[in-house]
Amino acid sequence: MAQREIKLSLVYRDMWQSSGKYQPRKDQLERIAPVLVEMGCFARVETNGGAFEQVNLLYGENPNKAVRAFTKPLNAAGIQTHMLDRGLNGLRMFPVPADVRRLMYKVKKAQGVDITRIFDGLNDPRNVIPSIHYAKEAGMIPQATLCITHSPVHTVEYYADLADQFIAAGAPEICLKDMAGIGRPRFLGRLVKAIKTKHPEVIIEYHGHSGPGFSVASMLEVCDNGADVIDVAMEPLSWGKIHPDVITIREMLIDAGYKVADINMDAYMKARALTQEFIDDFLGYFINPSNLLTSSLLVGCGLPGGMMGSMMADLKGVHAGINMHLRKKGEPELSVDDLLVRLFDEVAYVWPRLGYPPLVTPFSQYVKNVALMNVYNLTIGKGRWEAIDNNTWGMILGKSGRLPGKLDQEIIDLAKEKGFEFTTEDPQLNYPDALDKFRAEMKENGWELGEDDEELFEFAMHEAQYRDYKSGAAKERFQAELDKAKTDALVKKGYSAEDAQKIKRQGTEPIEAPASGQIIWEVDPEDYSTAPALGTFIKTGEPLCYIQTAAGYFEPVISNFTGRLAEVAAQGANIRKGEALAYVRPAEKEELFVESEPERLRRVEQLEEVRHVIRARRAKK
Questions:
Q1: pLDDT given for residue 292 in this prediction
Q2: Other CB atoms closer than 10 Å to residue 561's CB: what's the count?
Q3: What is the C-alpha separation between 167 and 148, in angstroms, rounded?
Q4: What is the bridge-based pairing of β-strands 509-512 and 517-520?
Q5: pLDDT computed for residue 327 by the predictor
Q6: Do residues 404 and 127 touch, judged by C-beta distance below 8 A?
Q7: φ and ψ at residue 585, rounded to 5 degrees
Q8: Within 13 Å and on the Cβ side, how many CA atoms surround 370?
């Protein structure tokens, strides 16, 4: 009998989201993609979705360009690319109009994304099935998702029935999204078997986080019962609260008798080194060390491991206030660990009473927030349920979809006391189409709709973040945040702020202003003029930016170094002749020839567009 093949999918996007705040930049993704191809073991790579687009906007980058750049070499190699989307919520934390949802799949298909993993935090088919239809219309493969959790209402029969509904609606694939890693292995095996027995043609992919430690056993169990694809990670962002490493999972499956693709270990080490370089560059400043640790404490509370960092920050925020009240009452103070145990116990109390919503974005945040405020209020002598925010009330009242379990009578009574009304209508009906409004505003602002309407989509999906991206505020805010993070890291080691600045500039060379005036960055003529991202590659003899002098002339600043930008002055900043407007980390020898001929031609075209803009401005003067 021929060996059954198990395919491996690298969740590169989720590796970063589960470990820290930010995602790699476009230039970093362009560097890692060919190496992932070279590894030779991945049938699929997760390239975007979830918080990817929003995070790119937050640090002032264009996510559409990043997605196209990342998917291109993977598409060329025949590797399927996939994304994560939140059904009714699209790529954000709150509901999206239907026309914006529909456009998303057209845009992502055009950008080179093959598969969309559609999930709803409540497992409500009404929020998933429309996206299955939209994805198929756009030519994407819709992978309908079961959000796995462990509770009395989340049975094999419950999940198998959901799978039946999704498959009947046209989904050719089912994903078991074990976002907290708390699915018990035998349970997951029985679920896969139930789906495969009834739907042998349907592809099943398992996504399990490492957090509480079940994941390796779960992966073997689902494969033994018919799963086709397994999500994996790789060092230095594997294990901990993230995902098991591809090496371990492959060896386990080979030993179990499955056919699994070979790993090019030279390429693995190269990809490992590149990922570590990205961490050292800037992403590591926003990775909470606890996210790299496995914790059995997660078994009881069921919260996703990626939430641990924000949860610990929240606990520290209320810690001082709680202890102040305890001191006033003459009671012993609590340690952060004491509070953590109380929070986990409170989650166990709150979760069933709120109807057992699967603890996944955004409902895991809602449950955690209610539990945290209950702990705070109970400790200072107040009652439970006194600080439920509007988003959580929306979930309770049915505005986000149907809860899997029953609400506690105490919650129902509290809602009635506040005059709230419950609803069972389709959540999408509360959010009318909106693309025409966004299209009109973009036209009024003179903003391009973008290739395949991708900029229109981005504006409609992430309105506030897109405005900040276009104005340059997002990039300036991020640069300030990164600079502070670097300084804080050095100050923690005992350096003064002044010494920290000197240390940050070690190994860099300054680019000095050739004239006095205002700095005008023109890195991308398609977008608003903003300072380039740190890490941007520049070359000797090429224009870097321009200085608008008091006389109104635009003086070009020519780079006298080849390397990556380590520090830049803000867009619009006033500078004197001879002052440093940027610091460059000179390129290593192997970086000097990284540019391909198509990239060179594209860069030359962009520079010519920049010169055209400058000439037009001078003509107006």
A1: 85
A2: 21
A3: 17
A4: unpaired
A5: 86
A6: no
A7: -90, 110
A8: 25
Across all residues in the chain, what is the average pLDDT?
90
3-state SS, residue 543: strand
User: How do 563-568 and 537-538 pair as beta strands?
Assistant: antiparallel
Q: Residue 203 is which amino acid? A: I
Per the listing, tokens 């705070």 go with 376
Tokens at residue 86, please? Answer: 């939140």
Residue 221: φ, ψ to 5°: -65, -45
Q: How far apart are the first and last CA of the chain?
A: 79
**DSSP character for 88?**
G
Residues 77-107: tens digit of each pLDDT = 999 999 999 999 999 988 999 999 999 999 9
State which of 145-154, 340-349, 542-551 shows the largest mean pLDDT: 145-154
d(CA 5, CA 226): 10
Angle formed at CA 188 by CA 183 and CA 192, multiple of 5 degrees: 150
Q: What is the pLDDT of residue 609?
A: 57
Residue type at 141 in one-letter notation: I
Q: What are phi and psi of 177, to 5 degrees?
A: -95, 95
Other beta carbons less than 10 A from residue 608's beta carbon: 11
CB contact at 8 A, 16 and 303: no
Hunting for tokens 């909470």 — which residue is that? 288
Identify each DSSP E strand in 170-271 by its residue range.
Answer: 173-178, 203-208, 229-232
174 vs 125: CA distance, rounded Å: 13
The dihedral through the CA atoms of 564, 291, 485, 51 has a sign that is positive
pTM of the model: 0.84
- Cα–Cα dist 48/67, whole Å: 7
State the Cα torsion 536-539-543-544 to the nearest 10°. Answer: 30
Distance CA 287, CA 87 (A): 28
Structure tokens at 497: 């702020």
Q: Residue 67 corresponds to which amino acid? A: V
Most distant CA pair in the chain: distance in Å? 82
Residue 527: per-residue pLDDT: 52
Say if residue 236 is preceded by a cis peptide, omega within 30 of 0: yes
CA distances from 489 to 37, 109, 501, 503, 612 (A): 35, 41, 11, 11, 43
Tell me how far apart the alpha carbons of residues 450 and 454 are, in angstroms, rounded to a whole number.
5
Closest residue by Cα to residue 180 from 365, 20, 389? 365
In sequence order, the β-bridge partners of residue 546 are 520, 556
| Residue tagged 């976002």 (tokens) | 179
Are 145 and 202 contacting, i.e. CB atoms less than 8 angstroms apart? Answer: no
Nearest to 253 by CA among 282, 279, 223: 223
Alpha carbon distance 585, 352 (integer Å):
54
Radius of gyration (Cα) for the chain, nearest Å? 26
Q: Which of these, 70, 477, 51, 115, lies nearest to 306 by C-alpha position? A: 51
Burial of 184 (0-12, 13-18, 19+ CB in 10 A): middle
DSSP string, 278-311: HHHHTGGGGB-GGGGS--THHHHH---GGGHHHH
Do residues 522 and 556 lie in contact, with contact meaning Cβ atoms separated by under 8 Å?
A: no
Tokens of 66: 């990043």
3-state SS class at 513 = coil
As given in the structure block, the two tokens for residue 333 are 């103070």
The sign of the torsion formed by the CA atoms of 267, 268, 274, 278 equals positive
Please check whether residue 178 is in contact with residue 211, taking contact to mean a CB–CB distance below 8 angstroms: no
